[in-house]
Every structure is written in structure tokens, then in C-alpha cells.
């Protein structure tokens, strides 16, 4: 799992008023037509602010169904992208939402020739090549995928890219990003994109290690166990999301930052964030939908 840099590792409708009694019509007075006025240069050239259309008059969208079983997963890799490395560890926990219970868990290493990220994940390449039943563990992982209704990862954009490559299967379940998609309660005083460590500590989960796949899955499972409003959080997280760019002048950039938008990441030289339509319409400033960047573009900006 690759997280955003943090301290621990490298950020009406208007009511219709009833009409009153009609007043007598005033006497018609002829007056000369007003002289036409020239528009000011500013009003002639300044475009109208762009924002989403109002939701007035539209029926409310039905929220997605809450999944009963989640597969919480994490990966450890030798690089930041599939162009630079490979996945060498998978950890996964099958979690039952109504009972807040762990049903099963698995973790396994896959052989690699070298690990340029050993200093981060602490996995020597030689250890990945030791004899161990990783194929059987992979078969168990496949069965757990078949038993779940949704997948959870902390930074889906990073973890999802490794599946469907090499021995790892294609995953055809909806994804939920616990860093980007879940709007954690404000009383937890978390950043808009918290690290796993900060999230765990905010829910009273002890943090004893970092950067191994199953360890991070355990942290998330224990956070979920403590969430009294987990169903509502998951339901909102499963709403379709698009990438939005904030349309704010430079002097008001703090408003985008406070709303969780990030500068120069998904959109070059702009404040952007992935939001559901419902979340975008609730913003106090205008935004525009923009195309998602390709993996190559993201890699070029992270290099």
C-alpha cells in the first residue's frame, strides 16, 4: 500500500409564497425608452462561474446497498507502479459488517528477484524465494474474493493496479477506498486523506508495526469493529465518484484545501478531488468535472 506522505512515513427549493390581494394598477405613464448602455469591459469578457446544475426538481438518488461482507486487502510491492516493480505480498481479511467480525484472513509472499523497496516494507528478496505454499494461499485468497461483496483498500488507486497481472486474479467486485471514499466523522479530527496509522489511533487501535500487508488489514478491520455508523459510511462510499476541479481564484485557494482538494496531483496546476455528485452539489464553491488522468500521466507526475 502506498499512502500519501505523512509524519510517520515520508497530506431549495424556495417556498412558494401565497399571493396577497391584488393592488390597484397604477396609472400608465409614458416614458422615453432608456438609452442603451455599453457593457463594461470586465462584464463583457469575464465568463460566468461554472458550477453543477441545481438538484432542485430531480428525484433523490437511491443510495447503494450496504455490503454484508468485505474483503479488506493490502499489497506490498517492489515499486510504485506496474512499470517499475511487482507485487510481492498480499494480505486480506474477510470481514462481516453486521456482526463486525473477522471471518478469515490470509497473507502470503510471492517470489521476486530483487526488492528496491526493501527499506520501506522490510521484505528481503531472498525471503520471498524461501519455500512456502504461496500458491495454496493464493487459492485461498481467490475463494475469499468469491465470498465478498466489496473490496476495501487504503489507497485503492495503488493497490488495484497489481491485480490481473502475473499470478494475481482480476478482481470484479466494487472497490471502496478507506483513504479517499470514506468520509470519517469530523469528531475523529482526521485529515481528509488520513494514513492507516492516524486512522487506527483515532479509533483507539494500538499501532505496533507498519508496512506489512496483513498488519495494515488488521488495523482497518479493528477500526471497522469500532465504527457504530459503519453501514452509513460504506453506503456513502459506494456512490459513483468523478474527478472534480475547484473553480476558485488564487486568493480563495484555502477553501479548496479545507474541502479536501489537493493541488497538482490528479490535475496539473489545479485543486482536485474525487467526489460523488451529492458531495459536489453540497460544496459552497463551483467545481467542474474533469477526465481522470491515465496511469502514465500519474506516473510521470510522481517521478
From TrEMBL:
Residues 15-32, 40-54 have a biased composition (Low complexity). Keywords: Exonuclease, Hydrolase, Nuclease. SUPFAM superfamilies: Ribonuclease H-like. InterPro entries: Ribonucl_H, RNaseH-like_sf, RNaseH_sf. Residues 1-54 are annotated as: Disordered. It comes from the Bacteria. Gene3D superfamilies: Ribonuclease H-like superfamily/Ribonuclease H (3.30.420.10). Transmembrane segments: none annotated. The keyword Nucleotidyltransferase does not apply. Residues 69-233 form the Exonuclease domain. GO terms for molecular function: exonuclease activity. This is 3'-5' exonuclease.
Amino acid at each position: 500500500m502506498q499512502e500519501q506522505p505523512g509524519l510517520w512515513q515520508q497530506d431549495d427549493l424556495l417556498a412558494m409564497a401565497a399571493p396577497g390581494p391584488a393592488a390597484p394598477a397604477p396609472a400608465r405613464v409614458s416614458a422615453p425608452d432608456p438609452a442603451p448602455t455599453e457593457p463594461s469591459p470586465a462584464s463583457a469578457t469575464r465568463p460566468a462561474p461554472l458550477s453543477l446544475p441545481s438538484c432542485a426538481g430531480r428525484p433523490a438518488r437511491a443510495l447503494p446497498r450496504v455490503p454484508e461482507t468485505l474483503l479488506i486487502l493490502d499489497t506490498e510491492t517492489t515499486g510504485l507502479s506496474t512499470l517499475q516493480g511487482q507485487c510481492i505480498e498480499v494480505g486480506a481479511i474477510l470481514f462481516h459488517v453486521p456482526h463486525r467480525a473477522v471471518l478469515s484472513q490470509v497473507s502470503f509472499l510471492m517470489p521476486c528477484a530483487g526488492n528496491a523497496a526493501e527499506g520501506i516494507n522490510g521484505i528481503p528478496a531472498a525471503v520471498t524465494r524461501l519455500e512456502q505454499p504461496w500458491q495454496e494461499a493464493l487459492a485461498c485468497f481467490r475463494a475469499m474474493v468469491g465470498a465478498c461483496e466489496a473490496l476495501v483498500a487504503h489507497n485503492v488507486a495503488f493497490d488495484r493496479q497489481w491485480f490481473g497481472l502475473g499470478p494475481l486474479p482480476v478482481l470484479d467486485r466494487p472497490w471502496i477506498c478507506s483513504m479517499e471514499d470514506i468520509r470519517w466523522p469530523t469528531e475523529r479530527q482526521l485529515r481528509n486523506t488520513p494514513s492507516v496509522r492516524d486512522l487506527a489511533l483515532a479509533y483507539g487501535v494500538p499501532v505496533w508495526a507498519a508496512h506489512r500487508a496483513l498488519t495494515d488489514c488488521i488495523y482497518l478491520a479493528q477500526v471497522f469493529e469500532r465504527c457504530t455508523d459503519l453501514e452509513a459510511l460504506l453506503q456513502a462510499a459506494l456512490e459513483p465518484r468523478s474527478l472534480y476541479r475547484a473553480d476558485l481564484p488564487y486568493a480563495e485557494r484555502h477553501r479548496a484545501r479545507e474541502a479536501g482538494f489537493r493541488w497538482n496531483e490528479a490535475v496539473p496546476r489545479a485543486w482536485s478531488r474525487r467526489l460523488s455528485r451529492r458531495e459536489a452539489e453540497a460544496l459552497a464553491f463551483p467545481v467542474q468535472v474533469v477526465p481522470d488522468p491515465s496511469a502514465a500521466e500519474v506516473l510521470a507526475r510522481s517521478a
